[in-house]
Design a protein that fits this description.
Distance between the termini: 52 Å
Strand content: 5-15%
Shape: globular
CATH superfamily of the largest domain: Vaccinia Virus protein VP39
Number of strands: 11
Number of helices: 16
Oligomer: single chain
Largest sheet: 9 strands, mixed
CATH topology of the largest domain: Rossmann fold
Helix content: 40-55%
Radius of gyration: 24 Å
CATH class of the largest domain: Alpha Beta
Order of helices and strands: HHHHHEHHEHEEHEHEHHEHHHEHEEE
CATH architecture of the largest domain: 3-Layer(aba) Sandwich
């Protein structure tokens, strides 16, 4: 519980003032004087990104040491300099402000914090449930996902050429939005069209972007699309969870692949921005006391993340594609996590100004998904914190330790990615790192794509 450093009458007065401030969300960011802090005339000095980051860090530290008064003071300043409809830095800071309010409200019984949380909840953007057409259009807005689709498809086409049956296991955050482009490429490239088997995970976790139809309905749409390209497709949905490293999915693939491997079936594991939800080492002690003992071993053994990669290697796949965001959100230290997230998630906020007008529905959906990520990183701990991104270098080492070796993306893949990037804003770029591909925004790493085969 937070410790208060001022007398109850003083705190009550401040709480009442802040309650009035939060009653009308249209007036929420109106500046009010606060003892010991700048007046509204000088708040503009706090408007640059570095200062905003420092204020967020000070606020996080105040929350961690249970200093309610200091927390309230810094939250007040942040509230006045970071409106939800401001520039990209202000909107980014506002999202972190919401997350810190949520975390602070959990830590004590301060009525002011509860009032702020309620007001920001009213201002927050609910995660939209997309139709298939909406989601396809949404994904095409930016290279964030298209980069991985394009690079992975090029590597898959090269790896599966000559196979009569291709089994694709799609572990994707975007609900199979990559598959139609892959089907199109297969239909146009191969003289003898293979039979496709598509296996997806019908996970129960509620992670955006969300789809407004079942995977069974999605499967029928994909089968019909493949048929329109003269390709026969089988579709399977496996109920599995990232919380236990997709253990039931691994079991299903192992049984299926044992039956069909001798008939010349290619096994493609396509991992698109989903593996970072698998628990890492920091959660191993918790999971080892609550999870399936068949898949997990004593706490002295590797994490579920490492176990999953070793299980993948045991399937002897034809190729594994790993695409994810190039950042590190794994620290147990709140301030380290906040700094890492702030210095990475400015990228989507900065890019959105280049392709979506303020107030558009798509912009609301886009930023609501980022807000969800920020809240998960900042406000939650333990099993509730599922956004556990790792740097590309960490994933590369994990894959090597699990018995994989990297393969280079060819010139065709590079050319296709560059052509795709030409359709988007000038700030996007591409670089190669030891054969891997990295999507950049204004020179900063955003998303990486890697390809792997059994060593």
């Amino acid at each position: 519980m937070m410790q208060y450093t001022e007398t109850p009458p003083q705190l009550l007065h401040r709480t009442a003032s802040f309650s009035n401030l939060t009653m009308n969300k249209n007036q929420f960011h109106r500046t009010r004087p606060w003892p010991g802090f700048p007046s509204s005339k000088s708040l503009g000095n706090f408007g640059d990104a570095n200062c905003m980051e420092q204020l967020l860090v000070h606020c996080a530290n105040a929350i961690e040491i249970n200093d309610a008064t200091l927390t309230q003071q810094i939250l007040w300043v942040l509230n006045n300099i970071a409106p939800p409809d401001g520039d990209s830095n202000q909107r980014l800071t506002c999202a972190f402000l919401r997350a810190l309010i949520t975390r602070a409200a959990k830590s004590g019984t301060c009525k002011m914090l509860a009032a702020m949380e309620n007001a920001h909840y009213n201002l927050s953007l609910e995660s939209h449930k997309f139709s298939v057409i909406e989601l396809a259009s949404f994904v095409d807005l930016t290279p964030w996902h298209r980069f991985g689709f394009t690079a992975a498809n090029a590597a898959i086409l090269e790896a599966v050429e000559g196979y009569s049956v291709i089994h694709i296991v799609d572990l994707s955050l975007t609900h199979c939005m990559q598959i139609p482009t892959l089907v199109d490429a297969i239909a146009s490239r191969f003289e003898v069209l293979p039979r496709l088997k598509l296996t997806v995970v019908g996970a129960t976790e509620d992670v955006p972007p969300k789809l407004d139809l079942s995977y069974e309905e999605l499967g029928l749409k994909l089968i019909n699309f493949a048929r329109s390209r003269n390709i026969m497709m089988e579709f399977r949905v496996i109920r599995s969870s990232y919380a236990d490293g997709f253990s039931s999915l691994i079991d299903h693939i192992r049984m299926q692949h044992f039956v069909y491997a001798e008939s010349g079936e290619a096994l493609v594991i396509n991992c698109h921005m989903m593996l970072h939800y698998i628990p890492d080492e920091t959660l191993s002690p918790i999971l080892n006391t609550n999870s399936n003992p068949y898949f997990l071993e004593p706490s002295s053994t590797p994490s579920v993340r490492t176990m999953f990669l070793k299980a993948l290697r045991s399937l002897n796949p034809t190729i594994v594609l790993l695409v994810d965001e190039d950042a590190d959100f794994t620290s147990d230290n709140l301030v380290c996590r906040l700094r890492s997230a702030f210095n990475y998630l400015w990228i989507p906020y900065d890019t959105v100004d280049t392709f979506l007008p303020q107030g558009s529905k798509q912009r609301q959906w886009y930023e609501a998904d980022i807000c969800w990520k920020i809240e998960n990183v900042v406000a939650h701990d333990g099993l509730q914190r599922v956004e556990r991104l790792e740097l590309k270098s960490h994933w590369v080492q994990r894959m090597r330790n699990a018995g994989f070796q990297g393969i280079n993306f060819g010139e065709e893949a590079v050319s296709e990615v560059k052509t795709m990037l030409d359709e988007h804003a000038a700030g996007w770029g591409l670089k190669k790192e030891e054969g891997d591909l990295v999507l950049t925004w204004k020179g900063h790493n955003a998303v990486f794509a890697t390809a792997w085969v059994p060593a």
